[in-house]
Write a structure and sequence with these properties.
By secondary structure, this protein is of the alpha+beta class. The chain contains five helices and five strands, in the order H-H-H-H-H-E-E-E-E-E. It has one domain.
């Protein structure tokens, strides 16, 4: 039980921090989607799994971090038929998509060239 107390406190803090944090889209608020993008494990996975064409900047050089991510306005889009948050870097033809995946009961994050369709 003693080991669970810090975990329970963390969950409570996350729940309180999420209150009023914005509209949910694709299962998350924009703030939560940014937290997923900022996660070091997500970043590493995306960097390792995203091929780039010759002459394009490597993903590690353009992956949003720090102020770039904090100041970014994520867009609500439809990606593969799902509501998703999109980080869009048109200049480098690099987009990140985050949405809730019911099958795994967790998030999906995918990098690709920009293919999301803006929500209407």
């Amino acid at each position: 039980m003693r080991r669970l107390a810090p975990f329970a406190c963390l969950l409570l803090l996350l729940a309180v921090a999420g209150c009023g944090a914005g509209e949910r889209w694709g299962g998350y608020t924009q703030k939560e989607a940014k937290e997923i993008i900022a996660d070091p494990d997500v970043r590493l996975t995306i960097i390792e799994a995203t091929p780039r064409k010759e002459g394009q900047k490597p993903v590690a050089a353009i992956y949003p971090q720090g102020e770039t991510l904090e100041n970014a306005e994520l867009r609500k889009v439809t990606m593969q038929g799902e509501e998703a948050w999109e980080y869009n870097d048109r200049a480098d033809d690099f987009c990140l998509y985050v949405w809730f995946d019911e099958a795994t009961n967790g998030f999906l994050a995918q990098a690709s060239h920009c293919v999301g369709v803006p929500a209407t």
